[in-house]
Amino acid sequence: MTNKILNWGLLSTANINRALIPPLQVSKRNHLLAVGSRSQATADAYAKEKRIERAHGSYEALLADPDIDVIYNPLPNHLHAEWTIKAVEAGKHVLCEKPLALTLAEVDAIKAAARKHGRVVAEAFMYRHHPQTLKVQELVKNGSLGTLKLIRGSFGFFLDREEDIRLKPETGGGSIWDVGCYPISYARTIVGDAPLEVFGTQVTGPTGVDLTFTGQMKFANNILAQIDSSFDIPLYWGVEILGSEASLKILSPFKPEVNEKLLLTRGDNTETIVVKGQELYIGEVEDMADAILLGKDSLVSLDDSRANIATILALLESVRTGKAVSL
Prior knowledge:
- By secondary structure, the chain is α/β, with parallel strands linked by helices.
- The chain folds into 2 domains: 6-124, Rossmann fold, CATH 3.40.50.720; 127-280, 2-Layer Sandwich (Dihydrodipicolinate Reductase, domain 2), CATH 3.30.360.10.
- Helix content is 34%, strand content 27%.
- It has 9 helices and 15 strands.
- The longest helix is centred in the last third of the chain and has 20 residues, at 302-321.
- The chain is globular and about 60 Å long.
């Protein structure tokens, strides 16, 4: 299958599509063929605007298109599992936006469907594929920081649209699901394991979802992580990794571009490490091609996704109980 070009279909006309369309249009192994919407008129207009060859007037029609190999699922959080499973059952591979699901049962159902039908399913944590993230992992692994001690990660921004779906509890809203999942994923990726215990606190808004969330995670070998997410602060993100000998600041950890800078501080000296990088979303597209065409393991495995969702659920359980929760 190494010479095959994968045809992709977009499951809806969601705004996040704009990030995936450019890499699909330039990739030599991937081709954007179709878009599906809840009405034919919307699909037609979107396809014309984005120069997409086919337009389907329902999600079901998109999944029934025999020429589609891969579905990109950017639907609201509470629909991720349902439509990912439907796509897999229709014989499609799926790149699903984060979070992959909202419960562990949903993750397990996705994994079972993928195994049964022999399809690839991956969660779209685009930062994981970027050379900057790989460089950070390398620096930690080769001992540049000494013994790993502490990780701090933040991701927040103002969300002031009252009707925004991310503020609705019934659709999987809340800052921890939308952006808190990033520093949680980052910390787990750097440690290379799941936390042993977590503790969370939050401030909720009128709809009941968290507007601001803070969490602590304890890993094996006494490694600690502190994360926070918010819909109630000016745009801010960053990760800091502290070891016994040095610290590393990642200024743009979750949406890195080209020529990003890492700051490695040892004593009074700070070294700037420039990472050439690449277009942010091309990595997850090519990772899907590697997995489907070459049989390689996806960089973000379903077990990895399950562990991230388990951590989020444990943090939310900690808020409900007021106690630390063991995983």
